[in-house]
Amino acid sequence: MDALLILFIFGLISLFLGIAKKQQLALITNVSGLTLAFLSLAYHGTYESPLKSYENALQFTGQELLLGMLCILFTGFILLFNHSKDVAQDQHYADLSSLKMFSLTGALCLIGFKDFFMFFIGLEILSIPVYVLVGSRKGVLVSAEASLKYFFMGAFSTAILLFGIALVFGATGSFDMETIGSVIQQNAFNGEVLLIPGVLLILASLLFKLGAFPFHFWTADIYQGSSFPVLAYMSTTVKIAAFIAAVKLIGSTFSSLGTAWELSLSIFIAISLFLGYISALRQTSLKRILAFSGISNTGIGLLSVLSGAEFGERNLILFLLSYGASSLILMVILQTTNSEDDEISGLKGLGYKNPLLGVSALVALLSLAGIPPLTGFFGKMLLIQDILLVHPLMAILAILSSAIGAFLYIRLILLLFNQEMDGVKINISPLSTTVLCTSILCLIGGWLILYI
C-alpha cells in the first residue's frame, strides 16, 4: 500500500522538476521513488503501514508482492535507458517519466485489487497516462494517430467493462471479489441471464487490454506509433498488470463458471497462437513484428487462465519475466541504433561490430523462441505442461505455434549476424549498458524464482 503513495508523490515531484527543466534531478527523483517503493514491497508486513485502513480494497501477498516488484524493476530500467536520449534531444523527460510513475501506481492497484472499485480505478490510472505517452512523439503524425486510436478504443473497452461489472453486480449483489466468488460457487446468484453476459463482457475488455484475438486490431498501429521506451513499458508493466487481472478475475473469481467462458476463451487463445506469428512473418518493421508476435505470446500466457493449475500464477510470472526482459532488450537496441524507422534491414550485421548489442539480441530472441536453458524456455514449458493435463489439444497447438515463433526469431538472429553486411560501431551509454546486462541476467537465471 505504501508503494502507491511513494510512487505518486515522487512522480508529482518529478512533474514539477520538469517545469523547472531539471531533467537530471528528475531521473534521480524517480529512481529514488522506485527504490523506496520496491523496498516497501520487499519489507511488506514487517512494519505498521499508515495506509492500513485500505487493506479491504488492496491486498499484497506473496505473488502480488513479487509482481509489484517486477513492475517497479521494469519501469526503472525503462526510465534509465530513456534518459540519455530524451535529455540529448531536449525532450520532456521529466514529464513523460512522471506519467510512467502515475501509470505504475495504477498497475499496482490492478495487481492487488480485492473489489471491482479498485480494479476499475487501477485500470484507468494505468491506461490514461499510456494514451498520452503513445502520442508523445511531437511532430510525428503516426504517433498522434496511434494515440487517438488507442484512446477511442480504450474508451469503448471501458464502457464494455462497466456494463459487465454492472451485470455481475446485479446478479451477485456485491463488488467484492471473494463475495462474488462465494455467491457463484454456491449458486446463490440472481439468474444466469445477468451473470453470464457480465462475465463475457469483462472477459472481452481484458482481452482488449492484452491485445488477444479478436480484440487485437489496435496492436500493430499503436506499437508502430509509440516511441521505444513507451513500447517497452506497454510490453512489460502494462502487460503484467493486465495478465494478473485476467487470472484473478476469470481464472479465480469466475472459475466456477468455467462452462460459460471456457469454450470462448479456448477458441480465442487457439486463434491468437497462430494469427500473431503468421502475421509477423510478413512484416519488415521490428515494432510490427513485436506487435504481432505479442498476440501469440498473449495466447500462451492466457493458457494459465484455462489450466487453473496450483502453480499457474507462478509459472505465468516466469513467462512474463522472460517476455518483458526480452522486449526490453530489443527496445534498448533499437533506441541505441537510432532506428526510428525500425526496419529490420537496418539491423543487418549489427551483431559483429557491436558485441554487447549482438549478444543481448541473441539471448533475447532465443528466450522468446523458447530455447533452453533460458528463462523463456521454462516459462513456456511450464505453462504448456499445466494445460496439457486439462486441455491436451491446447497444449499441442501451443507447441506448434511455438515452432512457428522459433522460426521467426531465429530468422532475425541470422539477420543480425549477417557477415555480408558491415555493421556500424555504436556507442552505448552506461545506463543502457546497465539495463542490457541486467536483462541478460534475468533471461539466463530468472528461472531461479521457481525455488523462491
What does this structure look like?
The protein has 452 residues and is an all-alpha fold. The protein has one domain (2-451). 75% of the residues lie in helices and 0% in strands. The chain contains 19 helices and no strands. It has helices spanning 2-19, 23-42, 62-88, 93-112, 116-134, 141-172, 177-185, 192-210, 219-225, 228-253, 258-280, 286-301, 303-307, 312-336, 350-353, 355-369, 375-388, 392-416, 430-445. The longest helix is centred in the middle third of the chain and has 32 residues, at 141-172. The radius of gyration is 21 Å and the shape is globular. The mean pLDDT is 82.
Radius of gyration: 21 Å
Strand content: under 5%
Shape: globular
Number of domains: 1
Report the structural category.
mainly alpha
What is the number of helical segments per DSSP (H or I, 4+ residues)? 19
Order of helices and strands: HHHHHHHHHHHHHHHHHHH
Strand count, sense and barrel status of the largest sheet are: none
Helix content bin:
over 70%
What is the tally of beta strands?
0
User: Low-confidence segments, ≥5 residues, pLDDT <50?
Assistant: none
Terminal Cα separation, in Å? Answer: 23 Å
The overall pLDDT average reads 82
